[in-house]
Records
---
Amino acid sequence: MSETHTITVEKVLPYPPEKIWRTLTTSDLIATWLMPNDFVAEIGHRFNFRTRPMGTWDGVVDCEVLACEPPHLLRYSWKGGSDSDPEKGSRIDTTVTWTLTPVEGGTQLKMVHDGFVLPHDRFAYEAMSPGWSRIAERIGTVTAEPV
Amino acid sequence: MISAAQLTTVMKTLADPTRRAVFERIAREGEVAATGLVRGSRVSQPAVSQHLRALREAGLVTERRDGRQIHYRIAPKGLGPLIDWLGHYQAFWHERFDNLEKLLKETE
């Protein structure tokens, strides 16, 4: 009955997949656009993202490289938080997948952050005001406008 | 603004699959009596009572007493902390995507 929710961001970028792949998999570059890290593009490599705490999150993400097929597919686990210590934020066990698809004029870059467990939204949200269900729909999938 | 403790409570409460099933059933039926919940499930009465108590304490359901019966409904803003939190994550990725684009442009 319960579902996992997904955050999707998708964009066509005017660069070849190789160039984008470098940005997604080079530790120094990742630090510039995402977060400080000790990433290595190797299946099974465990690494952390570390940044200043934000809101309900202590700023540390535990990851492991799950898939690495240059320059097309990169997937890592994204875990964080703590059940016993609410100060560290809520426990999550999710996966981030990057896919790069060559298209005319560049590359379609897609990020899927999957595994947010929520109660079944159709029933749960219908019971609430229309405002809540609208928000819930937006959460399902968000697609950025192409450039 | 949601507190970390509030969000953790909601997540922990709904992490139990049986409890989540109870919550979803209440959501589906609109309002349901505790006795009705026990009748329609394979879960024992004490277990259902315990789940209902946990859901109520997490602000996920509200109760209405009618004589000896207690009826349960979904609390309208019970899932609010979860929804806010997902919204934060969404904003986070949009911002990072913009950063990524900027970086790609700079290294042209």
---
Amino acid sequence: MDNRQIGMAQLAVCRGPGIIRSSGLGSCIGIALYDPFNKIGGMAHAMLPKHRAGREGNRAKYVDTAVEAMLNEMEAMGCSKVNIVAKLAGGAQMFRDADKENIMMIGQKNIKAAEDCLQELGIPIIARDTGGHCGRTLEFNCQDGGLYIKTINNEAKI
Amino acid sequence: MKKLSFFQQDLLTEIGSIGTGHAATALAEMMGRKITITVPTVKLVGFDRVADYVGGPDNVLACVYLEVMGDLPGTVLVMFDEVSAGKLLADLVGERPQDFLSLSPLQKSALQEIGNILAGSYLSALGDFCQQKLLVSVPNLAVDMADAVFSVPMIKLGDKTDYALLIQAMFFEDQAHTGFIVFIPDPTSARKLMDIFQVDAHG
């Protein structure tokens, strides 16, 4: 079984029954893509909304390029885009009292970027646990597409 | 910048020591007890590795976050685990929290103030030494997993770089671990520090 651990600004794609884990998402956003027919899943732990043109570097860092990279990899493994569905988790505002205008609102921007990007690609978001003020640890089961979410005082599966 | 040279490492350790020394003194005065502090660990690390320097990504800590502005912008985080936060609160406000994950407003503001005092003395020592003017934001508190809290300063750096420069030190009281203070200068500030002390930024 293929078990992968990803950190900030990383992504992974794997076949069921593999599991992709990511610890401690705060304002970053976790985007899970799943093809239920081929039992292939991908997950990215993206930090920022949009890749700016002309910049090299780590594609998993940005929502749009991370989704694109996962999609390419999944298609190369035999998935078809029309079958792929998405789940979102993360995008929290870690510091409650902070000035609303600055960097602290990045969580919301990441959520919005993921929604826009997936909509543009025609990938439906079938479940989500976003926003709030809590960090999340994610475990994505590439066999059944289940996304387990743990916070410091709660657990859930979406 | 992907790797620190020997001289860069040495300079940043020295600068960090000056800051942490003052912060430890401030904490010791506040608590009326002897506090020791480690020589700072200076590391240039990928975003996925930062939490390793405060006990791992899932380690739940009370984190006071302060933004540094002025001549050397960056972030300071002052972090306490459950036991040490409880001890600090018992001593300072006379109540040990029932539940670390849901602190009362008084407990929160006490921890923020401790963070504020520690970061303030850290930065004023650093500013004096480098003859730079530093301003610090109001403190913000979150009790959560280390990696989730680090996402905030990492996102701030994310657009400019793939590495974070950590200047981390640990506090001890009677050999019991008390907390962390982590300074994360922006890349421009790190370069500026090299310039001020004429350490070749590329060597």
